[in-house]
Amino acid sequence: MKNFQSGRYVQQAHYKSFQPNYINRVWLLDNMELIQLLGQADRELGRLDMYSDYIPNIDLFIRMHVLKEATQSSKIEGTQTNMEEALLDKEDVALNRRDDWEEVQNYVAAMNEAIENLQALPFSARLIRETHKTLLQGVRGKHKQPGEFRQSQNWIGGATISDAVFVPPVHTSVDELIGDIEQFVHNDGQYFPELLKIALVHYQFETVHPFLDGNGRVGRLMITLYLVSKGILKQPILYLSDFFERNRMLYYDNLMRAREKNDILQWFKFFLVGVIETAKSGITTFDNILKLQKQVEAQIQTLGSRAANAQKVVRYLYQRPLVDAAKVGEVAGISAASAYKLTADLEQFEILKEITGGKRGKSYLFANYLQLFK
């Protein structure tokens, strides 16, 4: 790592752009602290991955993991939607907050679509472009070439390119730089630990900044996609955006430090600490889900003949922990009167918590469950 050379600044007409060096080459790992962190990250990731087999119906809970990732990754880019708001239907969101809400929903759709596409497509430029297209569909960046690599210069920070914090490479080199990333990902001839590989890929992708908009979100989404594509995770259950959001300045600073001081080591350490902390947090979340499931199951069993309908509703709540009485009736397949009674039962158990405070149009949150993701 000592010999890492990030690239060079190139004088353009009235600004300097950064031209990164290729990453598809031989890498020598020679830092013991990094090797130790790597071992710890691998162990924690392995423990987290065990839950894919251990937890029945884990698909129910993945939706909430994706929703949390979508809100946190979008928050890094300045959106204000929280998880409670992200659960609402569009018509229930205030008009001045709908743009943010739609960006979060697009992130969820992009992640789900990308995971599905991995069954037919390798981790590739094509997969990244298709994911980007979904991400920007019909939202604020819809006029910035969704699904297409940029055909003009962009920059990061600053009102104009002259006072930008960072100017990525010229657009004419984007294709070859993305091609280099793709070759590096699939280069099995040179061994490089997978977690460091995706850390380097994320750094390089953000440095190339190949799209006019949405680079940060796509770059963070790629981390999970990579881990699933390589079989390191059986299910998409590790998301680093929460860690990056809580350490936002360090996230940006370490990326810039690698570019300007050739210090990729600090970025790798930061990334691995993020994997360790996030995996540990994920393990705690799953443990708490199992405890909550056990508690809820015991409460439901006391409902006698209504227990089966309550189970249908709770199963739905694990995927989307916000309902009204009409939705309870729809999910359980029961009359409106029975739905109100069942809703009251679940509220009495504190499985549901009324959040609107009105007499009509009441909404209920599975608050104890949602809290596990905060």
In short, what is this structure?
The chain has 374 residues and is mainly alpha-helical. 57% of the residues lie in helices and 4% in strands.
In the CATH classification, which architecture of the largest domain applies?
A: Orthogonal Bundle
Number of strands: 5
Number of helices: 15
Report the uncertain regions. none
Based on helices, strands and strand pairing, what is the structural class? mainly alpha
Overall pLDDT:
93
- The domain count comes to 2
Quote the CATH topology of the largest domain. Fic-like fold
**Fraction of residues in β-strands:** under 5%
Assigned CATH class of the largest domain: Mainly Alpha
Radius of gyration: 23 Å
CATH-assigned homologous superfamily of the largest domain: Fido-like domain
Residues in helices, as a percent range: 55-70%
Spatial shape: globular
Main-sheet strand order equals: 3-5-4
Q: State the separation between the terminal residues, measured CA to CA.
A: 36 Å
Largest sheet: 3 strands, antiparallel
Helix and strand sequence? EEHHHHHHHHHHHHEHHEEH
Describe this structure in words.
This protein is mainly α and 374 residues long. The chain folds into two domains: 7-283, Orthogonal Bundle (Fic-like fold), CATH 1.10.3290; 286-371, Winged helix-like DNA-binding domain superfamily/Winged helix DNA-binding domain (Arc Repressor Mutant, subunit A, Orthogonal Bundle), CATH 1.10.10.10. Helices cover 57% and strands 4% of the residues. The protein has helices at residues 32-54, 59-76, 83-86, 98-117, 125-136, 174-185, 194-208, 215-229, 241-246, 248-261, 264-300, 307-319, 325-332, 336-348, 367-371; strands at residues 7-11, 16-20, 322-323, 353-354, 364-365. The strands form two sheets. It has a three-stranded antiparallel β-sheet with strand order 3-5-4. A hairpin with a 4-residue loop joins strand 1 and strand 2. The longest helix has 37 residues, at 264-300. The radius of gyration is 23 Å and the shape is globular. 36% of the residues are buried.
